[in-house]
């Protein structure tokens, strides 16, 4: 019997109610946990805490995604993570949205290599730029202010490069930077099933098996039937399967509340019954919330739901079991 850990990215928000989802509502509820621990609620850091890591290395997410994208990672390079945002009538970013057309800068004084991750997300490699990491200041998504305040600070050539990545109604906002650094090993090998580069890269850095498929899109159109099939197949050959589903978070960033609710109902009716009726234990949690009213991630306690673990009593006993898998 395997333990399936299902992480529903961005599942919760102020209007989320477990009672609205019958399969989830049928599961045992344990004490919720805030995986952001007072910091910025971000997928990689929260997922590493779900898996039991206490100290999260700084400036690591773009590098993890580079591994997930199959890119070469060199010690002296600096990586940027950026996403496209729609700009409202007041000049403020109000939701993640890709423009139909844009042009990458070609006449530039910095040696930057762009990589399209899909869904409006990009990685940029600055060759041999590691020494710039600490001096660069980046905006956060949904900052207020003019377009100039949405650009990196600390190096004029880098700022100039990203200033050209804009259209009248869209801006590519650089919101993370990263350099190569070791990732502490976690307790036991697992299989990770995901569409997101950050989860696939995490598996590669930990030397875990990873499973993905073109029909696992990382958005609300992902194939949940195929996801169930791949999960149950993996559960037959390993003790722990980590499944990451990202569509609710993407819908939240687009400020599509109806789309988020519909996708969560699909998870509840199409994916969960197949997992709950298997012989394997199932745990469901979310890394953080995502509010479709604002498009922003939310910190705060995330629910922990489980099946096949009714003998456990108290959250501390569960945590020992949970973190040892």
Describe the structure.
- The protein has 325 residues and is of the alpha/beta class.
- It is 26% helix and 25% strand.
- The chain is built from nine helices and 15 strands.
- It has helices at 22-25, 43-50, 61-68, 156-163, 197-205, 224-235, 247-253, 257-276, 315-324, and strands at residues 3-8, 28-33, 78-87, 93-96, 112-118, 121-126, 166-167, 170-179, 191-193, 209-211, 240-245, 281-285, 289-291, 296-298, 302-307.
- It has a seven-stranded mixed beta sheet with strand order 2-15-12-1-11-9-10, with helices on both faces. Strands 3, 4, 5, 6, 7 and 8 form a six-stranded antiparallel beta sheet that branches.
- A hairpin with a 2-residue loop joins strand 7 (166-167) and strand 8 (170-179).
- Helix 3 crosses helix 5 (197-205), helix 6 runs parallel beside helix 8 and helix 7 (247-253) runs antiparallel to helix 8.
- The longest helix is centred in the C-terminal third of the chain and has 20 residues, at 257-276.
- It is globular and about 60 Å long.
- It starts with a strand and ends with a helix.
- The model is unreliable at 310-325 (pLDDT under 50).
Form type: globular
- State the strand order across the main sheet: 2-15-12-1-11-9-10
User: What is the helix content?
Assistant: 25-40%
Uncertain stretches: 310-325
Task: Sum up the structure in keywords.
single chain, 325 residues, alpha/beta, seven-stranded mixed beta sheet, 9 helices
């Amino acid at each position: 019997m395997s333990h399936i850990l299902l992480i529903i990215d961005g599942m919760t928000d102020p209007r989320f109610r477990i009672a609205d989802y019958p399969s989830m509502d049928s599961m045992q509820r344990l004490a919720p946990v805030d995986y952001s621990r007072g910091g910025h609620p971000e997928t990689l850091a929260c997922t590493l805490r779900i898996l039991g890591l206490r100290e999260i290395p700084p400036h690591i997410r773009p590098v993890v995604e580079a591994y997930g994208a199959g890119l070469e990672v060199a010690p002296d390079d600096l990586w940027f993570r950026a996403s496209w945002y729609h700009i409202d009538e007041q000049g403020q970013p109000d939701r993640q949205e890709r423009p139909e057309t844009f042009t990458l800068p070609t006449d530039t004084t910095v040696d930057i290599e762009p990589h399209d991750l899909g869904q409006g997300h990009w990685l940029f490699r600055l060759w041999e730029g590691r020494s710039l990491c600490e001096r660069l200041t980046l905006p956060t998504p949904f900052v207020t202010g003019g377009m100039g305040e949405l650009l990196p600070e600390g190096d004029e050539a880098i700022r100039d490069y990203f200033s050209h990545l804009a259209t009248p109604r869209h801006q590519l906002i650089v919101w993370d930077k990263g350099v190569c650094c070791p990732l502490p090993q976690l307790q036991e090998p697992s299989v990770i099933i995901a569409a997101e580069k950050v989860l696939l890269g995490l598996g590669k850095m930990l030397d875990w098996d990873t499973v993905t498929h073109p029909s696992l899109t990382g958005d609300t159109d992902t194939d949940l039937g195929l996801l169930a099939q791949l999960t149950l197949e993996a559960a037959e050959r390993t003790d722990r399967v980590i499944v990451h589903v990202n569509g609710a978070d993407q819908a939240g960033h687009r400020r599509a509340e109806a789309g988020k609710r519909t996708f969560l109902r699909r998870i509840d009716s199409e994916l969960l019954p197949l997992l709950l009726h298997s012989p394997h234990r199932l745990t469901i949690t979310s890394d953080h919330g995502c509010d479709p009213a604002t498009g922003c991630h939310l910190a705060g306690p995330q629910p922990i739901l489980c099946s096949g673990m009714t003998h456990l009593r108290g959250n501390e006993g569960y945590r020992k079991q949970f973190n040892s898998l």
